[in-house]
Amino acid sequence: MTGGGTATAVEVAADALRDAVLARGDGERLGSEEDLLERIGVSRPTLRQAARLLESEELLVVRRGVNGGLFARRPSTDAVARMASVYLRAEGTTVVDLARSWFLLLEQSARLAAEHPDEAVRRRLSERAADLEAAIRASGQSPGSAVVHTFALDLADASGSSTLRLFVRVLSTVIAGLAPDVRAVGRVPELHVDVLANLAQVATAVETGDSEWAARAMRRHAEPMMKWLLAQMPDRLA
Fold first, then answer.
1. How far is CA 218 from the centre of its chain?
2. Residue 200 in 3-state DSSP?
3. Which CATH superfamily is domain 77-232 in?
4. Ranges of residues in the chain whose predicted pLDDT is under 70
5. CATH of 9-72, one of 1.10.3720.10, 2.40.50.840, 1.10.10.10, 3.40.50.1100
């Protein structure tokens, strides 16, 4: 139920529509406006207000005309990230807090990935890390922030936790959207020395199933970046 206290008719209708969306696949038709008026039992203006609310949440598509109606739109990480970015900026979240939270999520992701019962999932992370390293070696460039973020998403996927997968992706998207001077952490030469080695060590620890080693390796990777951020970054989101 949205909000606290007694829900309004629009909130009740929005909750019913939201449940219907989550029970269906992306793009699946919920029904016509007439169908939903009968099913939910609200007035037309109430249903339309509820539909507009879900459209703003990017959970619903309303199509007019022949074969029109209300269609489900599955929640996307990008939509959540956009809302999270606005919220974090409004709250005055600092870059350091954002990065620290991201690395804490990655540490837990490493721990859970190492505990994943499927050896193929754990081995796949090592293969992905090796592919990233090979691509960087071939390009002759230093491993920038894009490499770290790609590995982070792979690690979150390997954790098997939908919660970690969502929030790692959300924070990764928010960080990627920051101003260039904030993203510059990915281009600081002194931070590149051990990046590939650290990520490879995380992947190896995950593959061998050593959760404590995986968590320590991720902390070791995060420490120099956090130290640089504490010394260089502005005390706000750009």
1. 18
2. helix
3. GntR ligand-binding domain-like (1.20.120.530)
4. 1-6, 140-145, 178-194, 233-238
5. 1.10.10.10
